[in-house]
UniProtKB/TrEMBL annotation:
This is Uncharacterized protein. It comes from the Eukaryota. Residues 305-325 are annotated as: Disordered. The lineage of its organism: Eukaryota, Metazoa, Spiralia, Lophotrochozoa, Mollusca. The chain crosses the membrane at residues 12-30. InterPro entries: P-loop_NTPase (IPR027417), Sialate-O-sulfotransferase (IPR051589). It comes from Patella caerulea (Rayed Mediterranean limpet). Keywords: Membrane, Transmembrane, Transmembrane helix. Belongs to the WSCD family.
Amino acid sequence: MAGFRTLLTKQVSNRTLAIGGLILLIYWIYGVYKPHLRNVTSYSSIIEKPKNCPKLGFAKPPLPLTALASYPGSGNSWTRHLLQKSTGIYTGSVGRERFMINNGYRGEGVKNGSVIVIKTHRSRNQSEVFERAVLLMRNPFEAHWSYFNLMSSRSHTRIVDKGRFCTRYTKSKGTDSWKRFYINWLQFKGDLFISFYDELLQNKENKLRELLAFLGFSTKNIDCALYDPEGIAHRVDKFPFRFFDKDYINNTNSHIEVVAKELRKRSPVMADHVLTWRKSPSEAMEKYQLDEFCKEYTKTKAKMQKGTEAQKIVKGTNLNRHKSN
């Protein structure tokens, strides 16, 4: 009987150790992957909805005048969403965009200390007298594409269709204005915080914490932004096609290098990051590839139009028969 009890005790002990080890393993895995889980787009499907998120309002007392400066297509409106969710304070803008006003951005057009930052796509010389600035930077190949989408679709979130791509993209502006914009703002004399779009996209929590610290705000409500990270103006780009010819790539690469040289005066590490945005000329598409792509689109469109016209004829014939009866 004593031997049986000893055997039973050993089995229970081994089972307890196994369960304890499994629990420790789960905690270890959670600890390792927790930072990554908090930065994925589907954060809201992993973490419970935060409670007591701040209601949006204007700042009292006034805050320092802070620019949120970026070249168009670099994630300015998206960053505004993240800041509003994290702080409960409206963001402002130099201009007034009807889309933003209609979607609850009551700070649109406000250019004083009642807002946490003030959106601008203008150069320093054309903007308000800012005390400090947040400079958003994005790979110009991607920023140009995003801006082209905005101008062609007249939407912050839609992706332009193939027709507009074929008729307008190759006629749109290059990236010389991108270079001039960033050279101008990198010479800003006040406090300057530089935020890279690609880093914010990949590591939302840590990069947002850094931005909030620069602005002098607590991160206690950061989960409110991470739970709802997209907002109404973040385009999820699913259009699979890019057309960059060799001249465009070479010109844009040279602009990247000029901006990186200016940025190196502030941060060699950041300058090296910007240089990773360059493309190899071997990635260029030949013009005939674009022509083939657009010819295929034209054929498809013609077939669709014929089908639509045929449906109209059939519908009209049936309507006439119905009337005669």
